[in-house]
Design a protein that fits this description.
By secondary structure, the protein is of the alpha+beta class. It has a seven-stranded mixed beta sheet with strand order 1-2-3-4-5-7-6, sandwiched between helices. The longest helix has 19 residues. The radius of gyration is 17 Å and the shape is globular.
């Protein structure tokens, strides 16, 4: 399976397709549809991710069909959780949103690749750390984010089993020669 990952552009058809994919994934994972106070960023993808220069949204497509199989958004931290006012700001902190991979395409490294692209974008945009929240009820989510280098900053112990996590971004310069690549990962 060949996958292409692109930045979401301001094309209305592309935005509509991504919105449909996201709401389908939310329904599958959480069992509910559109909730205005939780999904404004999906309705306004252009305002939250496409137009601001320090925000972005990446979409993975199957090369053969053009079908969307994964998404991830990164934007300046814009929440106002009292517990984090002393830790995060929109100047220094980015936040991960809407990482979804179609269930038929999981466990092949796509989510890790998409996060790597988002983290690289955050680094290039001069953010110092990344915030996210996830839920203990999501199969493998906590383990995945821990593997990506995140640490739990707060376990809310709420009805949604929300866990807040963060990660410092460390710039790493690696110089490779073409001969250093000895294998490829097949998705």
């Amino acid at each position: 399976m060949k996958v292409i990952i692109k930045e979401l552009d301001n094309d209305s058809k592309n935005i509509k397709d991504v919105q449909e994919f996201l709401f389908k994934q939310i329904k599958k994972e959480f069992g509910y549809g559109y909730v205005p106070e939780w999904h404004e960023d999906i309705i306004k993808l252009d305002e939250y991710y496409v137009n601001p220069s320090r925000n972005n949204f990446f979409v993975a497509y199957l090369e053969e069909t053009g079908k969307i199989i994964g998404t991830i958004g990164i934007r300046a931290y814009d929440k106002d959780f009292p517990e984090f006012r002393h830790l995060y700001s929109n100047e220094t902190t980015s936040s991960i949103w809407r990482l979804f991979v179609d269930e038929r395409c999981r466990r092949c490294g796509l989510a890790s690749k998409m996060f790597s692209i988002a983290e690289n974008f955050a680094n290039q945009s001069k953010y110092q750390n990344i915030y996210l929240h996830t839920h203990k009820t999501l199969d493998g989510a906590l383990e995945f984010w821990t593997k990506m280098g995140f640490v739990v900053s707060l376990d809310s112990n709420d009805e949604l089993e929300t866990v807040h996590m963060d990660k410092e971004i460390h710039e790493l310069e690696i110089t490779l020669q073409p001969s250093d690549f000895r294998h490829a990962v097949k998705l």
